[in-house]
Design brief:
heterotrimer, A alpha+beta (68), B alpha+beta (426), C alpha+beta (184), A: 68 residues, alpha+beta, four-stranded antiparallel sheet, 4 strands, 24% helix, globular, B: 426 residues, Rieske Iron-sulfur Protein, Naphthalene 1,2-dioxygenase Alpha Subunit, Chain A, domain 1, 2 domains, 23 strands, 24% strand
């Protein structure tokens, strides 16, 4: 079964509920690079509550991935 | 009301424990005196290496599982880098229990009382309305941590003492017994992920530790099930058995049944089966170990008590944790061998039949522990006898004291180490 | 690691689907059977109790709520017909010390609900029902209070009702349990 994909012209991420751990996690895969991250429930809740401004800051390409 | 029979006053120049523990007898108050239990917590359970769980119980990054370390509720976590930690389940703010579920997956824990949040390594990550503390990151607080955590073949041990012998030093020769167990997996790995049975036992923990390598009791306590199933186990613990009881040092001991199984030279006899019943397993063992597979399959799994609380009974693992002077809990599970699905199903099924509150073996042992606890509250005689085989002990080729299959060599080793720990100055 | 549950048959409590209550069952008749089963267990009538079971019997006492897959994880009891027989043979020796002397027992069964039907290996449909229980056990160790919910499956052979399946979910099965030497 193929995992659902959240996709646009800018990014492509597959999404799955992962039950390999001791409780369920969200498994996210950046399909363009293969990088995988798991998010637990408390992390997801935290993301939901991120201030839009904070989330926008994280989108700055020099913030993490292309720190330069 | 628990009766505690007190021995004669301690003679000058003699420690309390040198008086209670003789080479051939131990005093009944060791099992019933709450002050001795309190001292054991300090000098044994909060100091030496105590078995807590297995790495396979937290297989994924950020997995956690609640465990017991003596009277302490601890959370075994695996951080995102794979390192295993033992946190004490108590919020640094008001002392509340932080984790309530038995297990889960989370990179951080949030106390339900006021929302204080910790990383799964124990560090305080933050607290709500931080102006009340002068801002973020103002507090040097965190969850309590078991200061020393180490594992051997995935078996996780914790020591609440910041300093002391290393886990390898503590395990000593007993490490080789864990290796023997792991060496029965074609992949050289075991997991303890088949769940735990929890057996509440109204007995002092030491009755269990002593019984685990007591080869004198099986024919009596387990005669009912041996007779009904035609089990050959009873004969391993008879007077004519060639098995030996070995004092492995540091309080560890084993019933080494290999001499018996070598005589029979039948692969998997120790497990009550034959190679044709588990062909894939035997093939996988031959693939991994070549000619040595035969020896492994003939000699079987260890029967070893690792001081103070890990008992490997061939295919079961027991974790014994004290609750009070007259109460403890036995946690038991089936060993699972990596790369051996045929064996694993059988091990689960056999374990369900044998151990836990309704087990056809362990419920009877537990009945004995509980009757024993009631018995030692009687006034006379004050002493328990541990001299069986003292006159026929010998030293094996590796320098360990050994006795016959039914001798109390293991108990004497236990008490020797117990006394050393209890007499140690803080 | 351990056992891959994908390689195992479905867990027996949810295997197949819950069908409609099969025809020909009367709740009073079912209750009478449950009371009889309880009395035989309470009075340690091992022969009478054993005779209630069918050949495809399953007697299950899980840990941790409804339990995990019983072929992959440990349970307090997971007995097929053969192991029920072994368990009873052991206790009949009189040297099963966890149950010698036997517990003094009485239990109350209530909240009996007919739940549906469950297909069996013979192509028939067994009656599935649930009931609550409270049991007082007295032993030299002290008194124990046991309580929980039992799911039963029953089959008729002519006029005779037989026990096919009994799953006992103890209310405290997430905690350490004392020795369970009697027939729960």
């Amino acid at each position: 079964m193929t995992d659902p994909v959240v996709e646009s012209e800018f990014a492509s991420v597959s999404v799955r509920l992962d039950t390999d751990g001791n409780s369920v996690r969200l498994r996210l895969e950046d399909l363009r690079t293969g990088r995988v991250r798991h998010l637990d429930a408390l992390e997801l809740e935290t993301i939901i509550w991120l201030d839009d401004g904070r989330l926008t800051q994280l989108l700055d390409p020099s913030h993490e991935r292309w720190r330069g | 009301m628990t009766a505690v029979v007190q021995p004669a006053p301690v003679a000058t120049g003699q420690s309390r424990y040198s008086q209670l523990i003789r080479p051939d007898q131990v005093h009944g108050s060791l099992y019933t005196d709450p002050t001795i239990f309190a001292e054991e917590l300090q000098k044994i359970w909060h100091k030496t290496w105590v078995f807590v769980g297995h790495e396979s119980e937290v297989p994924q990054p950020n997995d956690y599982v609640r465990k017991q370390l003596a009277t302490q509720d601890v959370i075994m976590t695996r951080d995102r880098d794979g390192e295993v930690h033992l946190l004490i389940n108590r919020c640094a703010h008001r002392g509340l229990q932080v984790c309530d579920d038995a297990s889960g997956n989370s990179s951080s824990f949030r106390c339900p009382y006021h929302g204080w949040t910790y990383r799964n390594t124990g560090e305080l990550l933050g607290y709500p309305y931080n102006k009340g503390y002068g801002g973020k990151n103002k507090l040097e607080l965190g969850m309590g941590k078991v200061p020393r955590v180490a594992s051997y073949q995935g078996f996780v041990f914790g020591s609440l003492a910041a300093d002391g012998p290393s886990l390898e030093e503590h395990l000593g020769a007993a490490a080789g017994e864990i290796d023997r167990l792991v060496g029965l997996s074609p992949e050289g790995e075991v997991s303890l992920d088949a769940g735990w049975l929890r057996h509440r036992t109204r007995s002092n923990w030491k009755f269990l530790a002593e019984n685990e390598t007591d080869g004198y009791h099986p024919q009596f306590v387990h005669g009912s099930i041996f007779g009904v199933t035609g089990s050959p186990i009873g004969a391993l613990y008879s007077d004519s058995s060639t098995a030996v009881t070995r004092n492995l040092g540091n309080g560890h001991s084993e019933n080494d049944l290999r001499p018996e199984f070598r005589n029979f030279a039948e692969p998997l006899r120790w497990f009550g089966t034959t190679p044709d019943r588990v062909p894939q397993y035997v093939a996988a063992m031959q693939e991994s170990y070549g000619d040595d597979a035969e020896r492994r399959l003939i000699e079987g799994a260890p029967h070893v008590m690792i001081f103070p609380n890990l008992f490997i009974a061939e295919i079961q693992v027991f974790n014994i944790q004290p609750v009070a002077v007259g109460e403890c809990v036995q946690y038991a599970t089936a060993v699972q061998l990596a790369g051996a699905p045929e064996m694993n199903k059988r091990m689960v099924s056999q374990s369900i039949g044998s151990v836990g509150p309704a087990g056809m073996l362990l419920a009877d042992d537990t009945e004995m522990y509980e009757r024993n606890q009631r018995g030692v509250q009687m006034l006379d005689p004050e002493w328990l006898d541990v001299r069986r085989g003292l006159q026929r002990e010998s030293i094996d080729e590796n320098g360990f004291t050994i006795g016959a299959a039914t001798d109390e060599t293991g108990m004497r080793g236990f008490w020797q180490h117990y006394r050393t720990l209890m007499e140690a100055e803080d | 690691m351990g056992i891959d549950t994908a390689t195992l048959p479905e867990r027996p409590d949810v295997a197949g689907e819950l069908l409609a209550i099969p025809a020909g069952w009367d709740v009073r008749e079912v209750e009478q059977f449950l009371y009889k089963e309880a009395r035989l267990a309470d009075e340690n009538d091992y022969d009478g109790w054993e005779a209630l079971w069918t050949d495809d019997a399953l007697y299950w006492v899980p840990v941790d709520g409804e339990g995990d897959h019983p072929l992959a994880t440990v349970s307090v009891i997971y007995d097929n017909r053969n192991r029920i027989s072994t368990r009873l043979k052991q206790v009949r020796t009189g040297k099963r010390y966890a149950q010698a002397p036997p517990s003094n027992l009485r239990r109350i069964i209530g909240n009996v609900e007919l739940l549906g039907g469950r297909g069996n290996r013979d192509g028939g449909v067994d009656l599935e029902l649930g009931a609550n229980f409270v049991a007082i056990e007295s032993r030299p160790r002290g008194n124990e209070l046991w309580g929980g919910r039992t799911t039963y499956r029953l089959r008729k052979f002519g006029d005779e009702i037989r026990l096919v399946y009994k799953k006992v979910v103890l209310v405290d099965n997430e905690r350490a349990l004392p020795t369970l030497g009697f027939l729960i």
